[in-house]
């Protein structure tokens, strides 16, 4: 895998296929391999760029004493764009969606289109006056951190995954190896939540972002995730909202065919 140096860390990304460049940013607790099913469902003719964010895949943990933020993660995306040297269609899911949005705000000229799959955006909920959605997100975060602080790491992840995947068996249905890998990210989840709560992207920055954008949500998702998508639909000037029936938050793995079809339409439309 090729790598670039970002904040002193060798950050890795896969470079797969040939054709129209598409850069896909993974969710928290995941890595670039998250997109394997979506890529498998796409038509041919794409070059996929798949970065591993800090403490994900082959990329090491955030090295500095200060808190990790979305601009730090966006530096990975922008660094890959510089290395590739051509404009890309940028895609992000969940935490990775917030990273992709931040990169688009900062480096729009190198982005041909933007696809945001239920991106993180907790402060946007508050700024847009969606206080019920904001409070629900914060309550889930605080419950996770309280369980971690009490030493119940498995319970923290059980409630977290069951909530976001909309299933009472989301955690218990994982094999032990997968559970162990998730548990190993427990402390870094503090960094994820810290970045989410300090997300610097504002409604004013959304209004100024002219790139053609597709926002994807699921009809069975959580209130905060759906709320962020509706804020983006309202404030991004060139955005369309696409809803996948029956899908919850982890739709790149639960509904890869639907995600691939929507993404393909977005790329074709933005290329016209």
CATH level-two architecture? 3-Layer(aba) Sandwich
Low-confidence runs (pLDDT<50, min 5 residues)?
A: none
- The averaged pLDDT comes out at 95
Helix/strand order: EEEHEHEHEHHHHHHEHEHH
Q: Overall 3D geometry?
A: globular
The termini sit apart by 32 Å
Walkthrough of the structure:
With 272 residues, this protein is α/β, with parallel strands linked by helices. It has a single domain (3-122, 200-271), classed as Rossmann fold. The protein has helices spanning 36-41, 70-84, 95-107, 122-127, 131-149, 153-165, 176-183, 186-197, 203-208, 223-235, 251-254, 256-271; strands at 3-6, 9-17, 20-25, 46-51, 88-93, 111-117, 213-218, 239-244. Strands 1-2-4-3-5-6-7-8 form an 8-stranded mixed β-sheet, sandwiched between helices. A hairpin with a 2-residue loop joins strand 1 and strand 2. Helix 2 packs across helix 3 (95-107) and helix 5 (131-149) packs antiparallel against helix 6 (153-165). The longest helix is centred in the middle third of the chain and has 19 residues, at 131-149. The chain starts with a strand and ends with a helix.
């Amino acid at each position: 895998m090729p790598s670039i140096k970002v904040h002193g860390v060798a950050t890795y990304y896969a470079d797969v296929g040939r054709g129209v460049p598409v850069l896909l940013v993974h969710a928290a607790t995941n890595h670039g391999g998250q997109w394997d099913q979506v890529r498998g469902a796409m038509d041919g003719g794409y070059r996929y760029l798949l970065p591993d964010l800090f403490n994900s895949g082959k990329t090491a943990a955030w090295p500095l004493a200060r808190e990790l933020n979305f601009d730090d993660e966006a530096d990975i995306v922008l660094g890959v764009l510089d290395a590739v040297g051509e404009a890309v269609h940028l895609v992000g899911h969940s935490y990775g969606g917030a990273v992709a949005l931040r990169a688009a705000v900062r480096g729009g000229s190198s982005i041909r289109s933007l696809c945001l799959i239920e991106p993180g955006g907790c402060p946007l909920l508050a700024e847009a006056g969606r206080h019920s959605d904001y409070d629900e997100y914060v309550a889930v975060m605080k419950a996770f951190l309280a369980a971690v602080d009490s030493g119940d790491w498995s319970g923290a992840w059980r409630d977290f995954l069951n909530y976001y995947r909309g299933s009472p068996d989301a955690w218990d249905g994982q094999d032990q190896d997968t559970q162990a890998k998730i548990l190993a990210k427990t402390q870094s989840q503090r960094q994820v939540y810290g970045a989410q709560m300090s997300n610097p992207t504002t409604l004013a920055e959304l209004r100024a972002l002219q790139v053609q954008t597709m926002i994807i949500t699921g009809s069975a998702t959580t209130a905060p995730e759906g709320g962020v998508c509706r804020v983006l639909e309202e404030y991004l000037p060139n955005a369309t909202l696409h809803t996948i029936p029956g899908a919850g938050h982890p739709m790149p793995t639960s509904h890869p065919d639907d995600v691939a079809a929507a993404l393909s339409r977005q790329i074709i439309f933005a290329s016209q």
